[in-house]
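One record is kept unedited as follows:
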Amino acid sequence: MLTGEDKKFYQLSEKFSYVKTFLVSVEGFEKKDLKRLKKIKKELSKHPEITINNQINNKQFQQFKKTYNLYLNDLNYESSDQLNTKKELEKIYKKMVASPFYFNLNLNDPLGIIKKDGIPKDIKFKNGNLLLGDYGYLAIFSIESKTDEKSRIKIYNDIHTILAKYDNIKFFSSIFFYVENSKEIQADVKKIIMASMVLLGILYLVFLRNIYLFVNIAVTLVTSVIIGQIVVTYIFPQTSVIALVFSTAITSVSIDYMFHHYLHNYYNKKLGFNKAVFYGFLTTVTAFILISFINFPLIEQISIFTIVSLIVAYVHFAFVYPHLKIKHKEPYSKENYKSPFTVKGYKILVFSIIIVVISLFYTKFDFNIKNLDYQNKDLISTEKFFKSNLNQDEKASILITGSSCDEVIAHAKIIKSMDKHSTVPISSLLSQKEYINKLQKIKEFNFIKLKDELNLLDSNIGFKNDYFKNSYDDKLLYPPYPKYTPKMIQDFGFDLVYYENKYITYAMISPNKIDEILALEFTRSAQSKVLFENSLKKVYNELVLFGGLTLLLIISILTMVTKKRFLQAFTYILFPASLILCYGWFIPLNIMHIFMAFVIMAIGIDYGIYMNEPTLSHNTTLAIIFSLISTFAGFGVLVISGINSLFSIGITAVIGVAGILFLLLFQKRTNHKT
């Protein structure tokens, strides 16, 4: 769904640990619950693609923190003058003498000058294990599987097989959304395709009453779908299942070419070339050619398939069928439909224009592309459960870039200073600026004087001679600045990716700081919602541009073909469009609503041309009615879908077809001399 840079950054974001995190929690705090968690951890850890996330106890990082302890933490005193060394040593000695157990004294910092690095308040422990709020024990894992569909399905099945035998547990990973949503979408698609094919098959048999013609139509439509799919899959290695559903539905539009040839007896008599059908076909295909330039994979796939499918179907119905010796059967009625009332075309036109103008102020739009996907309520609920019990506020993920490891760390520090509540893992490392500032402070603190006092007072107070000789030594006071490498940082357990001459890591920031932080030149949003919205806004701009060009094309062709009957023919485009915009007053229109609106306009021009021929026969009206019912069945069945993108296509088609049918039955036709 994403395009350009947004797609690159989304793919990059999938490399980071917060995307791969897998949480497992066992309900309860008793020994049996802890035992059960340990058993689960042991079993899951045997899987080659699942590892326990042990960032808190990472040995390499703990050693790093020990080496740079003085530089990574603040001091409890501004200067050594604030310290009464003798008094502090006397306190320590009394505690050591009074303690019945071994007294652990940190000889590197016996006077407690360095502030201790505590564990974050939102992390709770019991019996040496993490806790999930008031629910139970928690284990955090990392999933290192590949990001292709097959690998994700395998790890999903493996996890559920392992955990199926355990009761009273909850587990979650964002990977589950990908697998479960994909399964639901595929099941939904199969149901819709079957329903559409059965419904269309019944309709064609009822309308045509000609088995020989029906069999040929079935072969033509299947051929058009297969060729369309071959072309699309050749151009796009990963084809959306939504495009497959649309491909089935679009065949209900191409059948229009057959109805107008068959009902006008083009297959039984040598009536020549049907210009009206050709103009309708040419306009529809050209409209889809223009729309195919929109840089949005789903729309590109649908447009290209539609172009190929319509061309194949038109060639069959216009040039092959006249040679198949198809017998013509008269329609059910030769009488023209008489509507109980009629509405003049100019009134419909005025009404449509008013609705369009009002829609400029009241129509709402939905830029959240995730809303097009299947809404997995169970997984959404589980995700919220873990977040609420971990006291995690909603945070936005961003990417931090730098030309070197040091620069990335420096940038991470800036973000942490801007947002105290943010989670910026790599900011735990020492930056060059911090090192220089702390080194200056250490020199000013006068540790030399402090060491002299310790060595003079130790034996006087009761300690062994030279007991503190290694305290505040050069290793603690003056360690060399670390020479960071990507491997070193990764060994510490932090995410760092090298991409296009940039080092990249991530951070989770507070929503109210998003705009301020993203204004920095070294940050980029990694939040899928934001990336999708950015990409979608670009697509909307392209949709407006190419949609406008499509509309101009339609108007131009309609003007040339219908001439004096243009305004009446134009209602077949404007009236359905106004109804769709009116729908947008109540339900925010997404990109699939708008895309389908252009499809309806492309279809509407066909009917505008047919209905405004100088000589209009009953068979023309009947052919359009059959075509509309066919289109309604092909696209309308999508309203039963649980996937919002397919539902959006379906409801838009239903509204558009209903508008065209209203015009067909109730718009008063004005006669013009040619």
Notes: The longest helix spans residues 528-562. The longest strand covers residues 136-143.
